[in-house]
Amino acid sequence: MFEYQLKKSTRRKTVAIKVHNKKVTVYAPQFVSNKQIEKWLFNKQAWVRAQLTKQLYITDTRQYPLRDKQVLIFDRAVNIEFKQDVKSEVIKCDNNLLITHSSRVKNLGQKYQQLLEEYLKEQLTAYIEMRLAYFCEKMGEELPMRLKIAIYKRKWGSCNSKRELTFNLHLIGAPYHAIDYVIVHELAHLRHLNHSKAFWQHVERFFPDYKAPSKWLKQNSMGLQWVF
Ligand SMILES: [Zn+2]
């Protein structure tokens, strides 16, 4: 199920769960048996897991090593391990991401964030560059003048009249299909710098199924953001 610490007390009258610092604590009255608690917790699994997942993205810089973390990469949960080695680098192996840092690193939390973000940016840039070339050709557009990937709070992408395109780094966690939609959306802005009917018709022409990924992104925007 999940690991937890059980704290029983004679004064308590109800059972309660607390998820804090990625740890689960269960408070229960003395008279409730461990078996009853287990049974009760069984039904709370989904909730506890959701709380833990939320907290996975929160890095406590005082904690070391920063273990048992996960990040979404193209809609797949990848485990992250952070440890000291001869140099700072990121190595991907199957479903694991090993982030190493040298012994000279002072601020581990900051280094961890920097290495992880650089890695994710590289992955997203490579994918977007490839798909931009594909969709530009399909849509009869020249390649954009500039491509920028950064963390934004309120947008997945943007496009301006200088043909500069930006994409939110948090898109890295989305499925390919949703990223493709954002690319087509921004490319469509090269012709229509608004969200007019003509704009949406243009999007639909090259990405007929645009409503599903657009809805998916709206519903999952919180889950795609990570906080250090
Ligand atoms: Zn738009």
From TrEMBL:
Family annotation (InterPro entries):
UTP_pyrophosphatase-like, YgjP-like_metallopeptidase
Q: Which domain of life is it from?
A: Bacteria
Q: Which residues form a coiled coil?
A: none
Enumerate the spans annotated as YgjP-like metallopeptidase domain: 13-220
One Pfam match, by short name?
YgjP-like
Q: Which CDD domains match?
A: M48_yhfN_like
Name the record gives this protein: YgjP-like metallopeptidase domain-containing protein
The protein's organism comes out as Pseudoalteromonas carrageenovora IAM 12662
